[in-house]
Structures are given as structure tokens and as C-alpha cells.
Amino acid sequence: MQITVNGSAREIDVDEQMPLLWVLRDELKLTGTKFGCGGGYCGACTIHLDGRPTRACLTPASFAEGKQITTIEGLSENGDHPLQQAWIEHNVPQCGYCQSGQLMSAAALLATNASPSDSDIDGAMTGNLCRCGTYPRIKAAIKTAATADNGEEA
Amino acid sequence: MSTKQRIENIDRRRFLKLTGLAAGGLVLGASLPATQPAWAAEGDVAGDLNLFVTVHSDDTVSIVCHRSEMGQGIRTGLPQVVADELEADWRKVNVVQGLGDKRYGSQNTDGSRSIRRFYDTMRNMGASARTMLEQAAAQQWKVPAGECKAKNHAVEHGPSGRRLRFGELAAAAAEIPVPEEKSLRLKSSDQFNYIGKPVDTVDTPDMVVGKAQFGQDIHFDDMLIASIERAPVLGSSILELDDSDAREMKGVIAIERLDGGAEPPLFKPLSGVAILARNTWTALQARKKLKIQWSETAHHAHNSDDYLAALQRTIREPGKTITDHGDVEKAFAEAGDRHNATYTVPYLAHATMEPPAATARVSEDHCEIWGCVQDPQSVQQNVAGALGLKPEEVKVNVTLLGGGFGRKSKPDFVVEAALLARKMQRPVKVVWSREDDIRHDYYHAASVEHYEAGFDGDGKVSGWLQRAAFPSISGTFQAGVDHPSTSELDLGLSDMPFAVPNRRMETQRAEYHTRIGWLRSVSNIQNAFGVCSFADELAHHSGERPDRFLLNLIGPDRHIDPSQGDFEYGNYGEALEKFPVDTARLKNVLRRVATRADLDLRGDHSEGNGEGWGIAVHRSFLSYVGIATRVEVQNGELAIGEMHCVADVGLAVNPDRVHSQMEGAMIFGMSLALMGEIKMENGAVSNSNFHDYPLLRIHQSPPLSVEVLASDEPPAGVGEPGVPPVAPSITNAIFAATGKRIRELPINKHLKIG
After folding, report:
1. Which CATH number applies to B12-207: 3.40.1280.10, 3.40.50.2000, 3.30.70.20, 3.30.365.10?
2. Which terminus has fewer CB within 10 Å in chain B: N or C?
3. What integer pLDDT is reported at residue A151 of this predicted model?
4. Cβ contacts (< 8 Å) between A121 and chain B: which residues?
5. Percent over 70 (pLDDT), chain B
6. What's the pTM?
7. Residue B422 — φ and ψ, nearest 5°?
8. Interfacial A residues in 90-149 facing B (CB < 8 Å)
9. Which keywords does UniProt give here (chain B) (predicted)?
10. Is the CB of B690 inside 8 Å of chain A's CB atoms?
11. Which domains are delineated in chain A?
């Protein structure tokens, strides 16, 4: 089976029911996408499938054929997506484990909503758990990134 | 026992051995992207100035962090202290994760003690290395050492203006005898460059691009993945196993049994059946095809609801007296007015975002581990014990931890990996699923506490009885323990700070039926919930505003020594002279946090609706934290409106990480107060994942504020002390809003959570 990850075509030889999470982590060694629950509850495995935020733990590999997969490793070329910069500016991560998923959900939000309100952020991010409790900084960093984006457009 | 390290000079080979940098394969800890990893240059002449500091000829400095990083920022905080005393330039510092090695002193990253135990040591390490660099420069220039001063990563000779970079002095400095500790000249606080100042967190850049490496992320081409079906009930073992369907699955390499052995549980693996496969998905799928019949044990009758209901009855009966001041019976007999209440907290799970994981490679006389562990020396001991090796034959590489909270200081999951790697004769990574994590934790004890108070004729509290019942952590290490241990009472109960002349502390019988362990702030959770709730009840009972009532109840400024007779107060392992139980600091926090709240606001008590504020203040891990919470309750639905934290943690080495720990503690505290409950039925945990063991989500997370009080007191605990006052501040606020007193957690048993 062939899938496209971060712009590159990758040949994989797996059970087509294998969730993308394990394809990415075990087969392609892209371990930025995290295993948190395996049931779609925590969002640690969030990736983009044709730009839409998707839980890799619930998505069979076969479903991704012909679609563009983006992982945290491919969110930006040099780690300089406005959200990644804002995450550093606000010193968002504590343990860091959930943050790949948080960033991917946030990036999908900003791609469709350039200046999200608090409730827009809540709505887009409520599927991403953080046990360390970085929610206030996540919210602040998303707003900073949104402002930076808008500033560039203006 | 002194925890100070002897400062010693180590040669390069030993440095490399300690830090694993020359071991090939994985290099953990190269995390500052702006700097060249110093070990990249082969043959680099380095000055290993002591156990923690190496200066390299390319001018970079390697500083060892020997404690585990799990989100508290310790890989920044400790090196920051060393770098400050060293006069190093932070941009030229590489943080290197120390391997498990007892020469570092305790590496058990637990008990909120990394900074408080190692602050002085780290300053000495930095100052010692700085002194050696200064002396090396003095020798080179043939001038008195007193004329040479390290500044900004170089040594300067004042009179002549000459200057040599640290890198230029590294080799010579390594030949200088290590200075005596008492000769070291430490900086005064106004000279600090980094201590108490904002310093970037070293691992953040890797975390935001998905490069940070956790225990779950370890990979070797020849490794197998193990997923283990474990005994659902404590002490249970395999009676019958039918693994024929699982064996038929493509990609399954082997199926192995693990034997849990007899109680106490210690850090032994539970009995189980391991599927070893080439990838995680296959291992997880094959596990579902196992048919296992488990043996019955005495714990099969355990049902957490029944257990707590029984404790709620027995807690009202006289227990075992631990401390007794004055005459409580007489005070109660003479009291004009009395009040009593019983508080219940269920079992709780750690639920770190990263489920436990460990990788092992085992040969005949050696084992190497890669894992998200809070205590690498405990890993060495337990793995060595299981394999019949010596602890020093077990090399432990500590990855980043995707959360710890106490779970990952129990190395049962590492022992599993070591045993399976030996059986398979190749590397094995044990991957715990979320279900494994929720069902096979070392749980925070389910607890019931009972309080009684009497008021004298003047309305002052004249008698106070507190009685605690919960299965002790000691039962995890010693079979037959059936009362809370005194060390658990020390966490917020024996050091209850109220000036009540007649007071008694008792424990009541409570047997263990599962593995009990320490969870962020440990028994402070139930002890603060009891003490801070009951004090609030007494305030309302006497019609006084809670903050004013509390100030009077705490009484005059003084240092408390809770020890009495055979009962010796532990004080988190610290001397009371250095870290007293200081009521002035507690009252200061109380006054500050009360200004954040409108404690006169009252909801409609007849309708059960309204808005209200609650406060709670608590000393734990030698720090003082107050929380003020505003809640809104409408039609049986609760929303937390806002929450404020005031913290006195002594000197805050890295203020931003102290803030973030307090923010995190509030959210951790809200999760446990609002929705945290592990249930056991027929001896087994009935929860399984985040749908039935929920955590607070972003839409439920209210605006938070944190005030960290400026202080010159010695640095105290930070990771845990924010948690205990959160739950009582919420239930106290609910009472103000509605007149409804919630004495049984979690709150979602009584109110819907918005």
C-alpha cells in the first residue's frame, strides 16, 4: 500500500486495518504522533488528513490511501509555524507529550478560522486532553498565533 | 541523612560512562538546538570539573541533570542554578541527562524535592567549577587567584584586562585540585544571572516539532513490542491459558507468561501473558484473542462502593490514638455547641498522558534500559533483583516522561521489559495501553476521614478530633498493613495548623485490596479536603466569614512541632529549623488569597442555585498555597467561574515553571475534585479509558491566576503543593453558592459538570 506523508510517498506493507498511528510510529518511525488512549478520547495522535484534523488511532491505513497525511514533523519546514513559535513564546508545554496533538488541532482550527474566539478555541480543542494542565497557555498561544497570521495578511 | 554530594573530579571516561554519551546508539539529552553537542567532536579536550560540570574546549559546557523531567522543568531548573554559579553563558550550555547512578545522590524524582534537596549542591557544583577555572587562569597568567574573576563564560584578570574563555581554560582547570566546599565563594542573590529569572525551558523547541523522545518512542530495528494481559485482581495468577488463536496471528513472534508472585506487590510485575510481536498493533490485537482463566484471591470480594460505605460507618467509632493534646472528651462534654462531618475521597489513577513504557536489552551479565522512569536507581535495583544481576550492571537511560505524578517511580513496567528481553534474547519494548494504565495502576488510596469539633462558651473552637481511614501505601511493601501510616498523616493532618487546645488525631482500620501508591501530593489530597472543608463548615456554623474565622483558628504567629511522644513528625524529610511549620506564612497566603475572593457573596440557599466563592489554604511539601474559587450553580449544573492561586514556595528558582506548576496543579486538582473516581468491582477496576475516567478538558478550564510571593526563604516544593487546596476551595464555594455541603468526591456524583 502507498500513502503520502508530509509530501513524500511511502510504501508500507501492513494489515490494511492497522491504524495510521501505528503505521506512523512503528513502521515509518515518525514518533511525534503520540499514543495516548487508542480510542479517540485524548487527541494525542491528531494528524491532518487532507488538512482535516484526524485521530490517527482510529483511522485505518487503507483510509489514507490517496490522501495527504500531515504529521507534527511536517507541520512546518523549519519548526516555524506561527503556532510553534507562539508555543515557545508562551512556554506552553510541560511534559510535552500531548503537545503534538494540540498543535495539529490548533493548526487545523487556524487554517479555517483566522481569528477564533474563546468558544471557537474550546470547540476545536476540547478533544485534546492535557494532564499537565497547559490549557490556559494553549488558549493564549493560539490567540498570539492568530494575531501574527492576521498581521502578515494585513 | 545528608543528601549533599561530595564534589569530586572525574576523568573523561567516567563522565562519558555516567552520562552514556559515548555508548553509541541513543544519545538522550542533546536538547539545545543553538549549540553544537560537545560530544560530537571526537578527541575533544574536555575539562571534567566535577560530577555535574564538564567544560569543553569548544567553549560549551555540559551540565548533568540527574533528575527526571516530567513537565516540571527540572532539566532547566537545576542546570540553571549550576550555570549561574559557574558564570556560564546559558546559550553555551548543553543539558545532559544523567544515567542511573547512586553517586549522584537520590534520583527519585518524587516528593517535590529536586530543587529543595539539590539547590545547595548545584550551587556548590557551579561555584567549585568556577573556582577551578579562575585558578587555572591565575596559574597561566602567574597572578594571584584573587585577581581573577569568572564572568560571562570567561575569566578576566582585573588589573591587566586579560581574558580567557572557559573553553581555553578547560584542560588546565581539570588539573586543578577540587576546592574545599567551605572555601567556596557563593554569589549573593543580587549577583544572580539566572536564578529567579526567566530562562527558556530547554526541551520546548524539540517538543513543538515532535522530536522530543519519550519512553514510548524508543526504537531498535531488532526489537519486539510486548503487550501484556495482566491479572485483573491483586494476587491473581493464571489457572488456564488458551493462546492458540493468538499464536496464529501473523506477526506474533512469541507468547510468554509473567509470574507476579506473592504479596506484598512491591514493584514486581503482575501476573500476566505477554504477546511479543513485530509491531504494537499486532500485539494489541493478538491480546484480545487470549483466553485466560485467573485464580480467585481474597481480594475478589472487594467492591469500592461497599468498602467506602463500610469505612463511613467504622470511622465514627473510636480508633487508634496517634497524638493527643489536652482533653478532647472534656472539651466536647463542656462544649456549648458541637459539629461533626465525614469526608470521602475515592480511588484515583495517575493517568499520565504517556502510558508507561520501557525498553530493555539483556545479555548474560548486563542489562540496558531506556524508559520514562522517575527513579532510575530504583530501576537498577529492581531489574537487578529480577535478573540476578548487580545494580551497577543495569544501565538506565532516562527518556523524557510524558507525565509522571508518582506513577513512573514504580518500575514494575521496567521489570516486565527486562524479564521479557532476557527470555527473547533481543530488545523488547513493553507498551502499556491506556486500559492497562487505568486498570493496573498503583492507586491513590480511597479514604474516609471524620472530624468533630466543640465550641466553648465564647464561640471559640475548644476541641478538635480528626480520624483517618485509608489503605496505606505501606501495604504495597509489607503484607498485613491495615491502618494509615504515620508518614501519611504527616502530609497535612498531623501538621494541621489550628490553635485548638484540646485535639486528638486517630487512625481507623482500613485494609488494602489493590496496589496503593503515591499520586501528586499523596495523602494531602484527602487530608486537605478534610481539614479545609471542616474548617469552612465551622466558619459557617459560627456565622463568621471564612477568612476571618480561619485567621483566628490558625491563631498567633508561631512555629509548630507536631511531634508528640512516640509520634515523630517527618516534615518531608527536612529539619524543622530550616523549614518550620510557620503559621505566619500560612496566614500571609490566606490574607492574600482572600483578597481575590468575594467571601460575602451568597447564593440562594433555598433554591440551591447561585454564585459563591470558596477558599482553602494548605501547607505541603514545605510550601504554602492558597486557592480561591468562584463557582456558579444553576439547576444542578456546576461551572467553575475562575480560580486564583497564591503560593509561597520560598525562593522560586525558575518563576515561570513555578507558575506553570501551579496552573497545572489547579487543573489536576479540578480533574480529581470534579470527576476523578476509580471504581473496583469484584476486585477489579471497572474503569478503562478516558470516557469513564475523565480528565478536565479545555472548555471546562476556567480563567486562572497565579501569584508567587517573593521570598528569600529556602526553596521548597513546587510540583505538588498546588493540588491539595483545590478540591476544598471548590466545595467550599459550592456551599457559599447553594448551601449544599459536598463531603464526598467526586463532585459529579452530586452536580452535573458544565
Report:
1. 3.30.365.10
2. N
3. 56
4. 698
5. 94
6. 0.94
7. -65, -45
8. 91-100, 103, 121-123, 125-139
9. Signal
10. yes
11. 2-74 (3.10.20.30), 82-153 (1.10.150.120)
